[in-house]
Amino acid sequence: MKIVIDTIGPELKEFEHKFSKLVESKTALLDTIMKYIIKRKGKQLRPMFVFLSAKLQGNINESTYRAAALVEMLHTATLVHDDVVDESFERRGFFSINAIWKNKIAVLVGDYLLSKGLMLSTENNDFEHLHILSEAVKQMSEGELLQMEKSRKLNLDEKIYFEIIKNKTASLLSSACAIGAYSSSNSRAKADEMKLFGEKVGMAFQIKDDLFDYGSGDIGKPTGNDIKEKKLTLPLIYTLNKVDKKKYREIIYILKNENRNKDKVQQVIDMVKAEGGIEYTQVKMIQYRDEALEILHRYPKSEVRDALEELVRYTTDRKY
């Protein structure tokens, strides 16, 4: 992502310093965990979207740095809580917080990050930041619960799938773009436009994540993991709607009763590939990506627009 780094590299470096200071704690255990989280942070896509969205509309300022910090605190908190809910002991190739310090501490760490984000905004009167991000928190919770409900019944259709990923994943990325745009423009109209842009990118991003479950590369989580967790993602939904009744019952039986059997999980993956589920899902992913680019191309060509386009294309072209 050379153009992105060339465009906002200094801002990202400054952000890392500011973020480390913001999450410091006088409690030794908590401070140790915060340092562990920071050292193993991901690609920081959401802060990148915050800064580039801000720069597209105006100048990056202290409000932008606080917006990026709020988004990153919220995102990290949800990841910590998700690992507890999913009983996951690995995150990005490293032990998760709950794997090392157990569930109770992990939940409290997530709560700490949420409270730090709230304090950061209220102490600086960034109430519009809170308004934008609070909607994302609500949507993320609703999306997770809806997915759990549908996973139990195994009756998920495409419409519900898109509703789930819009809430679970796209809501935070869309809020990152909106809050970034607002921080430099103070315009709700510009924030709303960038929110829609971010939503399209977020949808493409999650669909790409779901495709990884049917690949064979090292992506930080086991192949077939969604099937083991009875998560019906788009490749499988498409396949279930296409196969005959016999194959349909066979897939459903595996999901309900043999979802921990490695050979059976691979059998489902092979059926999805054979029925064209991967190709269909890729088409949908590119559709969302192109809708995001259409919004972006309403702006005059510039280094910032090129960097955002590079970031959008990265979400669908990435290898992990």
Characterization of the model:
The longest helix has 28 residues, at 158-185. The protein has 320 residues and is mainly α. It is globular and about 60 Å long. A two-stranded antiparallel sheet has the order 1-2. The protein has one domain (2-212, 276-317): Farnesyl Diphosphate Synthase (Orthogonal Bundle). β1 (90-91) and β2 (94-95) form a beta hairpin. It has 14 helices and two strands, in the order ααααββαααααααααα.
Question: Gyration radius, to the nearest Å?
Answer: 20 Å
Query: What percentage of the residues does DSSP assign to strands (E)?
Result: under 5%
Spatial order of strands in the largest sheet: 1-2
Output the structural class. Answer: mainly alpha
Q: Which consecutive residue ranges, at least 5 long each, have pLDDT under 50? A: none
Mean pLDDT across all residues, rounded? 92
Reported by name, the CATH topology is Farnesyl Diphosphate Synthase
Helicity range: over 70%
Q: What is the strand tally? A: 2
Q: What is the terminal separation in angstroms?
A: 14 Å
**CATH H level, superfamily name:** Farnesyl Diphosphate Synthase
What's the domain count?
1
SSE string: HHHHEEHHHHHHHHHH
Report the CATH architecture. Orthogonal Bundle
The helix count comes to 14
Sheet with most strands: 2 strands, antiparallel
The CATH class is Mainly Alpha
Shape: globular
